[in-house]
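Consider this one:
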Amino acid sequence: MNEISTLCGIEACAIIYSPNDPQPEVWPSEPEVQRVLSKFMEMSEQKQCRKMLNQESLLKQIIIKGQQQLTRQRNDNRKKEMTHLMFQYLNVGRVFDNPSLIDLNDLSWLIDQNLNEIKQKMTMIQIQEGAPVTENGGERGHMHHVQGLENRTDTIQNQY
């Protein structure tokens, strides 16, 4: 209990009932348990509920956290798949697998995100260098590169 109290920054106690022993085990000591319980009972019911954690609510929290991690990991994996697909096309000039319409839409979204990032970085560099910032992130001089990438994206979509 000392470790839990220290790690969580709370006052804690434990009362453990055993089927083999009529007397419960208490930690840290019986007077300390009574003090913590008295303090807890003096709280309003609303505060008590916020401070309580039973096995069901703990498992629900763990499940929700696990689901959130799973969603983040799936999104990360999908982004990596699309990045791989994008680089495969940029390096070879074609995609070997038959991507679905969903894949192509996700790839298009990823390319748009990358283009927006590039535009933002170009704008930041221009601001840092004191150069005048042109419209659309200063892409006027580099537009042929962007159009080439967009043409390749259109080609991918037309292939399938």
About this structure: The helical segments are 2-8, 30-42, 45-51, 55-92, 101-129, 135-138, 143-159. Residues 2-52 form one domain.
